[in-house]
Amino acid sequence: MSNKIVLASGNQKKIQELQDILAPLNYEIVPQGSLNIDDAVEDGLSFVENAIKKARHAAKLSGLPALADDSGIEVDAINGQPGIYSARFSGDQATDQKNNEKLLSLLKDTPEADRTARFQCVIVYMRHAEDPTPIICQGSWEGRILKAPQGDSGFGYDPLFYVSEHQCSAAELSKEQKHALSHRGKALALLKAAL
Known about the structure:
Layout: E1 4-7, H1 12-22, E2 28-31, H2 47-62, E3 66-75, E4 81-82, H3 96-106, E5 116-126, E6 135-145, E7 161-163, E8 168-169, H4 175-181, H5 183-194
Parallel strand pairs: 1-2, 1-3
Antiparallel strand pairs: 3-4, 3-5, 5-6, 6-7, 7-8
């Protein structure tokens, strides 16, 4: 059995995070870009649908087992937005900074108590493109949205996500602390156990 798994992501920070957490399993994680595989069309209406689409696409084009993650942030005050649209919340030319600015502007009049949010992550592992029983692991991470960004590590909405256990933003945590607490860390711990 090949110990290579193609990772259906072009996000360098996400690739690094997945490689760090899965390192003890001795799999060789190959980013799909290194195999000239384009991103799948993410037109599902849930994290799980999009993760399956990404994993199936990468497995089909690579002939390898594939791993895909679909994740985002749900903010209660805006009915769970941006959810599956987290990466492209501010439009086609979205950046982390523009997404964070849009979120802050939508919440500008929202009181502290109503700024609750959670990160969600669904990870899918498919042995091959026609795998009828993919492994699906889900993790979530509760917190709330700060009024201004704090910290400069992490990515995405990390600078706005307040972690009460450490009384700081997710962007102020060490890599080890983040892996232990995060939605992706929780989903990957389940995946490690399943693999």
